[in-house]
Design brief:
3 helices, about 55 residues, elongated, mainly alpha
């Protein structure tokens, strides 16, 4: 995972004011966090179900 913007990304930011998409956490970590979130949503569907994301 890169920690700096590439020259192309810097140019896009200068032109457009945004750079997207960018990876902020590794895919495996994102997958685990989503699994945990969905597990909690199943336990508390009224309070934090998927429709409340």
């Amino acid at each position: 995972m890169a920690t700096k913007l590439s020259a192309e990304e810097v140019l896009r930011y200068q032109q457009d004011g945004v750079v997207a998409p960018i990876t902020v956490i590794p895919p495996a970590v994102a997958k685990e966090l989503r699994r945990r979130l969905e597990s909690v949503e199943k336990c508390f569907p009224q309070q934090i179900g998927p429709e409340k994301r």
